[in-house]
Amino acid sequence: MKMKMHGRLLLGGLVALGASQALAGGPAPAALPIYQSAPAIKAACDKGLLAAQQRLKVLERRKVDASWLAAFDDFYAFQEDTQYPLDFMLHVHPNKAVREAAQACSLRWADFSSSFSQNEKLYKALKRAPTADAIDRELVIAARAAFEDGGVALPPSQRQRAKQLSDQLSELNQQFDKNIQDAGIKLAFAEAELKGVPAAVWEKAPRDEQGRVVLGVDYPSYVPVMQSAELEATRERMWRAKVNEGGEANLQLLDQIAAKRREYAGLFGFSNYADFNLRRRMAKDGATALRFLDDVKSAVVEGERSDVRALRQAKAEHLGLAPEAVTVQRWDASFYTERIRKQRFSVDQEAFRQYFPPQESLAFTLRVIEKMMGVRYTPVKVQTWHPEVLSYAVSDAASGTSLGLLYVDLYPREGKYNHAAVWPLRSSATRIQRTPTAALVVNFDRQGLTLDEMETLLHELGHAVHNNLSATRYAAQGGTSVMHDFVEAPSQMLEDWVYDKQVLKLMQEVCPSCKPVPDALIDQAVAAKGFAKGSFYGRQHLYASYDLALYGSELQQALPLWVRMEGATPLGYVPGTMFPAGFAHIAGGYGAGYYGYLWSLVLAMDLRTAFQNGNKLNPEVGKRYRDIVLGNGGQKPAPELVREFLQRDSNSKAFFEELRKP
Ligand SMILES: [Zn+2]
Fold first, then answer.
1. Which of 169-173, 384-388, 479-483 has the lowest mean pLDDT?
2. What was the pLDDT predicted at 349?
3. Band of the pLDDT at 26, cuts 50, 70, 90?
4. Which of 131, 286, 317, 512 could cross-link with 274 by S-S, CB 3.0 to 4.6 Å?
5. What are phi and psi of 414, to 5 degrees?
């Protein structure tokens, strides 16, 4: 079984800080059970865990025959249906008591899972289970690996320690997230301090006793302030608040997480967690991932330096000083990058909001998928966790067959997960006509999206379709249950679609009254995209190599390591700041795996080559992509899927060409 050890079931966007009605042809997809009170969560949790124990006993006693794998997968599916909806509530439910009850339940499930992954009876049965074909064998390989990673084959004392560590890690990880989610940081600004920030961002915000505007550090407040506040002091306050969001407590948690993961890897004879964690991924080990990152670094190092020079020049001009007299600070990066993009390329991210109202933008991105992949999204009325959440039934356009269910939660609110992510809540299993469900969670401004945010929306939708359009035999192999350094490929592939005029024309199909984005603006956006590429990849390189160092051979303390590594970058480290305290990715399921964004981007850019010749919406290519890459989920190894789709081996040509392009 693909248990995500210490992991979470969400697939996130990369860190850019510093920057029911029945359908024809099939039954309506099963809606998520929604729990509206803490006692309801507790009752469902008790009932679910009890049922899981009973089913497990039945499975343990079951004869190992030709249908054993199916029975094993039934258990997997049961667990998804029982555990995931409860787990998910802790990230999105508007009621704090419900979130806290979900948190407590989540730890009980973590305890169940860590025991499950050490279940010798199932492990032995799995070894003997008859397999009919390559898909069955792939299921057995992945499931055995998950048991082994859970410690089933360790001597008893170590096995016990593995379980202990695993449970402790779940708790530490959860606390890390909670500290960020509940931070509730607020900053008060006099109107004059917000000079340059679009009024729409702050005019409806609450005021304090002195009449100052009170802003949070949620994206719809943070991003415009960082990109448009004229006063450096305003940007600095906002930036410092965000970068310290996790607080001192999270630095300590991250140190504990790193130490415990290291000890965990040690139980398996590994000197570090990175090598342990990567051995079943495309990269295979930490050294290979680091070598790849070095190649990225050398391709962008000059670009990164020249970006900083350009930023310094822009700051000097803005302040009427000589370039030697100014220093570019971290809180300057977004502001001057946007300023240069406005001046050189006449591109203003804020200017896109008028063309991209949130609901219509969502409809547009769904239309893109419909055109490309031959599917249809139909709004459905099902119960959700918040009145503003939208729900869609996904069906096959040609046959009308029901394929899956998609939830979309668009706007920020108190206590909600504050980044952009997709939760695959239910996996496909064709053997039992099981349809998948995903939830897409973002935090957009009600005024509209910038082009950057449209990219984020497509990225997340890329994860959602990976779940929704999967057609695997077994639930345990559904959609996104691929190697973790491949999982960001389908999402990142689609980001590029927003820079295509033909694609953007679909906006008028879903919103005839929306003003079309002028072609010239898109040309300018494409030209402007090249600027600050060095800084972007430089930053991603820092995140990825920091993550590998934290979980690498040498035992490191989170903050001093960060101070050293960020200190070696062109913009340096800012004393008093603690970025790692908010780096939830690496405290959670992306630990020793953040490099996967860049690794997957190589594959994403290679996948894009199939859509060239100006036709990103080509339905034949799109359908092949859906069937081969998305449809197979984890039932074939990722490199095989890419080879089958591209009809050649994958290579990094497109990626490095893009990096080196001036
Ligand atoms: Zn992602």
1. 479-483
2. 86
3. very low
4. 286
5. -55, 130
Ligand 1 centroid from CA 591, angstroms: 14
- Angle, alpha carbons 641-408-368 (nearest 5°): 55
Q: How far is the CA of 480 from the centre of ligand 1 (A)?
A: 11
How many angstroms does the Cα of residue 422 sit away from the middle of ligand 1?
8
Instruction: State pLDDT tens for residues 287-330.
Output: 999 999 999 999 999 999 999 999 999 999 999 999 999 999 99
CB burial of residue 50 (10 Å; 0-12, 13-18, 19+)? exposed
213's tokens = 């505007």
What are the tens digits of pLDDT across the range 193-205?
999 999 999 999 9
Burial class (CB within 10 angstroms; exposed 0-12, middle 13-18, buried 19+) of 210: exposed
Residue 90: closest CA among 173, 27, 151: 173
**What is the CA(88)–ligand 1 centre distance, in A?**
17
CA of 652 to the centre of ligand 1 (A): 20
User: How many other C-beta atoms lie within 10 A of the C-beta of residue 93?
Assistant: 23
Q: Report DSSP state, residue 496.
A: G
Residues 6+ apart with CB under 8 A from 392: 366, 377, 378, 379, 380, 405, 406, 408
SS3 of residue 438 by DSSP: strand
What are the distances in angstroms from CA 453 to CA 162, 205, 224, 352, 540? 41, 21, 12, 10, 18
Residue 110 phi, psi (nearest 5): -60, -40
Q: Tally Cβ neighbours within 10 Å of residue 247.
A: 16
* Distance from residue 158's CA to the centre of ligand 1 (Å): 34
Residue with tokens 């998804």: 80
Report how far ligand 1's centroid is from the alpha carbon of 25 (Å): 32
In one-letter notation, the amino acid at residue 104 is A
For residues 611-630, average pLDDT: 93
467's tokens:
């779940």
How many angstroms separate the alpha carbon of residue 15 from the centre of ligand 1? 10
- With contact defined as beta carbons under 8 Å apart, do 507 and 355 qualify? yes
Q: Cα of 154 to ligand 1 centre, how many Å?
A: 34
Q: What are 612's two structure tokens? A: 């060239």
Q: Is 518 helix (H, G, I), strand (E, B) or coil?
A: coil
**Smallest Cα–Cα separation from 261: which of 564, 578, 555, 582?**
555
Using the mean position of ligand 1's atoms as its centre, give its distance from the Cα of residue 344 in Å.
30
Distance 487 CA to ligand 1 centre (A): 8
Q: What is the mean predicted confidence (pLDDT) over 69-79?
A: 97
CA of 251 to the centre of ligand 1 (A): 24
